[in-house]
């Protein structure tokens, strides 16, 4: 019975939603929404590079090597670290730098897709998935891997909670109090890169940032108590993920990614309106 | 008395622009040193060097026998009150939780706060007079309350040195007097060494055992009572003239002669 209910898509959406919701509190508190966008769009840049390599070296494409996944992961982590350096040192204005990465990755992904289509008369493998996600075709192994990764993300946040909260509150003061603020800064970006790479399979690179922004935003509207904010954020994230899946099950033509994001948006709108009325 | 802070032959430059030159000064354990100087004179840079956020171009700083970065990373050597502290109004932390964060460096990664440290924070909250607001959100405090909370955070790990960067800026004369009395009482009670950075001369002279006048180089390092009036005028001439204030001695003329060279 439990086995039937716990489908790969449900397990993936639920565990990913929990990890995203926990990180969402930091994303909102540190004003990193745009960073999430930058990292998520870099996945398309990574995929574009993989498609180009596939065209240049057909042997790679024919091999069983998961070269697209490897390059997507590499691009996401590299982008996260570069954005980390820029935001920490502030030699270039962070907003501008992230914007440049974001549009360049998108442009490179679209260009690579167009070249691939021109050469092969077919869209490259995973094109639709990168844009909009494809949760229905995930297997149980992938779902278990997502659950393990999500658990690792949440455990890391629990173990380094005081340092992460201090850095979100006042990174300079945290450093002056003896906290390794630089290490925490890059670690948090690496955790974001992990959930984004995985989340692209669920909601796509265009929509995954919403799962990192909306739960934390809603929770921070509802409470000013730290523990409550994390619990509420996880609750909102789960509600959005399960609501989106339910919509998809009910109306098969509704894609899961947009359904999750719109469910989260409705929750945001409801809490925002209620707070202004009450 | 053993110096807690020992600065030897210190130079610092941003690229090719010298900001501090040949600074040598000591701060005795249990004393208060007031650091004054005009805007752009290098006060904030010296604070950054003392808190390990910048590294000297030349020379050495020792705090309790440790290099500043090592002293900071110990978590219980330096307490720091920043200039113009700002807090997000909707940050989900109570005053007590924000103060406890000051223990994070001392406690270390992957460890829980020690019970004795948490008990000390509670006693500090009582002592500093913010027990009634300890469970309020940190973002809801007034300027004076926030300053007290941030002093409590700086003192939470029982540091030996408290560095305060322009703590009286924006506080009226009565508030300043209350702040000075408060810090003096805390200093005695907790056996603190204090470095008090300001360009508010009245505040600095009324609470410091020694004064250091800084404008790229060190122009004076002695007790406040011997501070020459003409040095004060020369040091702050730019600031005064920018504010449209002229000295009774008339406008500043002639080349600036560092007082140390005169002496």
Describe it for me?
The complex is a heterodimer of chains A (278) and B (263). Chain A has helices at 2-5, 8-29, 33-56, 58-62, 67-89, 94-120, 127-132, 140-159, 161-176, 181-222, 226-250, 256-277. The termini of chain A are far apart. Helices cover 85% and strands 0% of the residues of chain A. With 278 residues, chain A is mainly alpha-helical. Chain B contains 10 helices and 9 strands. Chain B has helices at 43-50, 68-74, 95-100, 104-107, 115-128, 143-155, 173-190, 201-207, 229-242, 259-262; strands at 3-14, 17-28, 32-36, 58-63, 78-81, 161-165, 193-197, 210-215, 217-222. In chain B, helix 7 links the parallel strand 6 and strand 7. Chain B starts with a strand and ends with a helix. The chains are: A mainly alpha (278), B alpha/beta (263). Chains A and B meet through helix 9 and helix 11 of A and helix 2 and helix 4 of B.
Name the poorly predicted regions of chain B: 240-263
Structural class designation of chain A: mainly alpha
Number of E strands of chain A: 0
Intertermini distance of chain A: 43 Å
Element order, helices and strands of chain A? Answer: HHHHHHHHHHHH
Largest interface, counted by CB within 8 Å of the partner chain's CB: A-B, 25 and 34 residues
Overall shape of chain A: it is: globular
Task: Using the CA coordinates, give the radius of gyration of chain A.
Answer: 19 Å
Q: Radius of gyration of chain B, rounded?
A: 19 Å
**What sequence of helices (H) and strands (E) makes up the elements of chain B?**
EEEHEHEHHHHEHEHEEHH
| Beta-strand proportion of chain A | under 5%
Distance between the termini of chain B: 25 Å
Number of helices of chain A: 12
Helix content of chain B: 25-40%
Give the strand content of chain B.
15-25%
Helix content of chain A: over 70%
List segments of chain A where confidence is low: pLDDT < 50 over at least 5 consecutive residues. Answer: none
